[in-house]
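LOG
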Amino acid sequence: MGVSTRVAAPNGLLFVNDLGGGTIPEPTGGSRIWSTQSCVAVGCKIDCEGETQVTLGKAREVDPGYEPSFDDALETPGRAVIVSIVPGEKVLEATVPTSSTRVRVWVNHPSEPDGIIIGLE
């Protein structure tokens, strides 16, 4: 099922990382999703243009039925995944059973999505 919220992201970025934090990736050209072993940054709609719908849950429950834009492992030693915006404001949280979690991210637009789904496994 997952949990959802609408958020106005001040710099058009969402961060997905362990409860204890993570190393923020350096944005590069091309994709709007960047990652390190401990953090995934996802570009979204900037706050002055509106809110972004964010959903977090088990991948099998939130999978929209098309290929994810991101699919990789995330270090989760604290056994919780946090979705936050700058300046470190938590918007969603989910517990996970292991210290490494497969994270899949689906977006509804390649450059400025206003719908982001984060599936955990």
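LOG (cont.) second protein
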Amino acid sequence: MKKLIGYSSAVGLAALVTGCIGVGGPIVGSIYSDVTGPVAVTESAGSSKVGEATASGIIGFATGDASIKTAAANGGITKIHHVDMHSKHILGIWGEATTIVYGD
């Protein structure tokens, strides 16, 4: 019974510590992730400009603005063609999410 409580506590603590930096992106590895995936596509043709916005977190604390609006503004984009998301995670302790906007 003590082992069951100990294992359950360890799993619960791992889930609590992982928080939002442990999820995101199309695939999340429990040890390491570095993936890019699509978010959205519009009918607007062409993509001569690129804008990025990043948010990051470490041990349950997260900061940044990875919104599409901010990424478009950073690239001087007024007509969005498509949006991708790039995320990196290491052991659920550190994570970073970048929104990449393509357009004109």
